[in-house]
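Troubleshooting log. The previous structure file for this entry was overwritten by mistake, so regenerating from the original sequence record. Sequence copied from the archived sheet and checked twice against the printout by T.R.
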Amino acid sequence: MSQANHDQEDFWTNNAGPTWVAYEAPLDAFLAPVLDGVLGRAGVQNGHGVLDIGCGTGGSALLAGDAVGPDGHVMAVDISATMVARAKERTAAQPWVRIELTDAADHPFQMPQFDHVISRFGVMFFADTAAAFENIGRAIKPGGGLSFATWGQIPANPWFTLPAQIAKAELGAPPKSDPDAPGPFALRDIDRTCAMLARAGFNDVMGVAENMAFTLPGGAHEIAALSMHVGPAAGTIKHFDADAPAKSRIQAAMTDAFAQFDGHAIPAEINFFTATKS
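Regenerated output below.
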């Protein structure tokens, strides 16, 4: 594993991992439309073999396991030991689902064994994305498919931009990050990502940006509460070690901002990609 991916492993195990486990339920509910989009495009059926990349706390593995049933098999992988442990707990009643702590970028897949590869927000963090796609392709049976989702263009995703602006206004600017580095927006460019997939040996490559909306039962208040722990505001709060009054002001401002959207449904641009292996 490269140093860059070691950094991602550390982040998702020791930093983000415990948070995603703690807020598993609202995160699964908030991002459910994306997982539905990935699985709908994949066409997973009973008896199929599925590789789930970046399975996190196991929500995607659970649904894939339901789709393939006991006659199929699912291998769900993640680099976060924290989230893998939780995913194993959640899928314990599905013995045909195997959760592994490994990096799909360089996992030694011995032979083509999967009918489908799926991923919800799990392929944007590779140190060498092109090489990772080549390695993943080796695991797909001839005629098998790839279906994954990434975040689209940054300005079209206010769940990121609004909290970032609000936290910055309250606390100051955190260190800048490169949006092209491994991270949420690394694959926001559809043409560039499709070209990468084609060079990695995939066929019938398609990418489409879909406008979606995310919400939670508690509306803007619950979304703001979640955003205090996940996303750019959470990172800024941690960087500046914000005190309780500052946190309260940030959460109140985010609640007001999210409440401006119709039905408190936060618009998002999600890129969906599909491809096949001949």
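The beta strands are 49-53, 73-78, 97-101, 114-120, 140-151, 203-214, 266-276. Archived copy saved in two places this time.
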